[in-house]
Amino acid sequence: MNQTIPASLLELIYLVIEQIPSGQVSTYGEIAQIVGRGSDGRMVGKALASLPKEHQHKVPWQRVINREGVISTGSARQRELLLAEGVPFDAQGRVILARCRWRGPSPKWAAEHMVQTLAEREEGEQLSLF
DNA sequence: GAATTGACGGGGC
DNA sequence: AGCCCCGCCAATT
Question: Is the shortest CB-to-strand distance from A8 to strand C under 7 Å?
Fold first, then answer.
């Protein structure tokens, strides 16, 4: 049985991902940061790679991409789903994280589920004035 | 038990 | 931008 990551941790990772609103995205690393418990980006990737069929309809796996705004799987399907949600892409096919990055769970939700909120980042992210 | 791998990330150059 | 190296941690070989 490949229940490698404790079921509770897997469920927690899925639970956090379920909080990402449509039209927004997060990264593997940030999900891990929220989950805490010694998890890291690779583990989040592992969790999604082994996402059970019965969870696919409720876990918005497509909203988790890498820090470069690139769809790690290269999946055209994933890209379509994001486009349909209104996620902005640049000319090079990368998600414009500066415009649609999920800010993480509310302090209240985080406290209720014993997870972390995203540390305030002072986005040096240039808001390109197109 | 060691080495490799992976839907990763940060930092340096 | 690109490239490279290192840390991370569980699963697999």
Answer: no
